[in-house]
Amino acid sequence: MEEKKSTILVVDDExxxxxxLTMYLEREKYLIDEAADGExxxxxxxxxxxxxxxxxxxxxxxxxxxxCEKLRESKATPVIMLTAKGEEAxxxxxxxxxxxxxxVKPFSPREVVLRVKALLRRASKTKFLETxxxxxxxxxxxxxxxxxxxxxxxxxxxxxxxxxxxxxLLYYLAQNPDKVFSxxxxxxxxxxxxxxxxxxxxxTHVKRLREKLNRVSENAAKMIVTVWGVGYKIEAENQA
Amino acid sequence: MEEKKSTILVVDDExxxxxxLTMYLEREKYLIDEAADGExxxxxxxxxxxxxxxxxxxxxxxxxxxxCEKLRESKATPVIMLTAKGEEAxxxxxxxxxxxxxxVKPFSPREVVLRVKALLRRASKTKFLETxxxxxxxxxxxxxxxxxxxxxxxxxxxxxxxxxxxxxLLYYLAQNPDKVFSxxxxxxxxxxxxxxxxxxxxxTHVKRLREKLNRVSENAAKMIVTVWGVGYKIEAENQA
DNA sequence: TCTTATTTTAAACAATTTTTCAAAAAAAAA
DNA sequence: TTTTTTTTTGAAAAATTGTTTAAAATAAGA
Lengths: 240, 240
What we know:
Two copies of one chain form a homodimer.
Chain A: E1 7-11, H1 15-27, E2 31-35, H2 38-47, E3 52-56, H3 64-72, E4 79-83, H4 89-93, E5 101-104, H5 109-128, E6 138-140, E7 144-147, E8 152-155, E9 158-160, H6 164-175, E10 181-182, H7 183-190, H8 200-216, H9 218-221, E11 224-227, E12 231-234
Parallel strand pairs in A: 1-2, 1-3, 3-4, 4-5
Antiparallel strand pairs in A: 6-7, 7-8, 8-9, 10-12, 11-12
Helix pairs in contact in A: 1-5, 2-3, 6-8
The structure holds a DNA duplex.
């Protein structure tokens, strides 16, 4: 079940962004190289076969678009472009420069990891040309079902309306059942990297989440467990 | 339920167009080869039995028409010709050169996929020369029916006039019921590859689509669901 | 070709929903 | 009991979507 680790090149002039991405991607067992400017990045990308490159659009000297175009003259390495909100996201989106996907800053780390996985999956599919049985994206617990494609949550087969953050939070916890996350962890992973808000914000969302689940089933609400002095987790078992 | 995968040769001198087509076709589980010029393309097409060839009209050296004519001396492989707007679409259209279909640039990726499917269906039918119960291309929901062959939408058996984009959008969502698409997804897949517009353009089309459906049936309009903070989807169930 | 009608896009504003933060109340631990 | 932590509550601030309107692009017709 273990695959060979993919190597990823992360390019951004801001060190904190590089470190942030590196941290999250290494957590997923990818091997990461970093570059802070376009020239270096291009050289590295040409000299080594990366499985993926994450490339900031705005770079000192040679910008992301130019790097991508130059790279494309000799390599087809998948590229995810990072663009600030107003920037030329459109142009990047338009495939004009051979970008495979793009992410708008500020992003949530979780989102980046998901996109990276998706793109690597797509790329490897291309390579091996295998029929992948379209994986349904559903998490199932005794009283709770999360259909990620439909973005739908059901408690005892009864649909529950969640706000985006409530959904993200539940989905994140549900992906790692029985693992406790501190409020810091949750703010880091579920919120985007620019959010430096109050830790208590997490509590508020947990409260509303529990309330909504509880309206349908007390058992479902009890799945979200407070670990005193530590944080929150979802318990898969602990169900009637 | 799994069929053998069709192999397709994509020929265009612009890499971004090749990559774009490859990406969308691979998503549909086709096996893709690429060629950047006419000579290479012809050689590849003669040495391997492709199920379909997508051929750009304008190519350096030997152009698309010549490739097609030369190919036709020994093979009947179906060919879709890509032509820029002003180009000799007429000549190609007239099937003078043995082309089976043609698409005018810029195209929307979705359109290409549909044409490819249609042509492959036609071609395979020809092969077996059997009375195949012409697969109707109809999507049916409780209050909504989309007949793609006729390009006709009916709500509670009452025909609804949609503009092209409205239709495309509805059809795209209807093909993947219960799956949420972000505005970015929709712009990428439903609009053509040259469009780099505002995300909110999607909202406007959704609004008008809902309005037109709502004139006939509120239930039909309610099928198009806003997923707050994420995008839009069509709900198959959620119907009275 | 020129004119007219239709469709598409985009911007601005309104309406709605969500998120955040702060502070009091409650609960758990020491 | 005292202290610490969590839960609850409410309301302002922020973000997102809905709606309207006008300009731009496109297609159709004269």
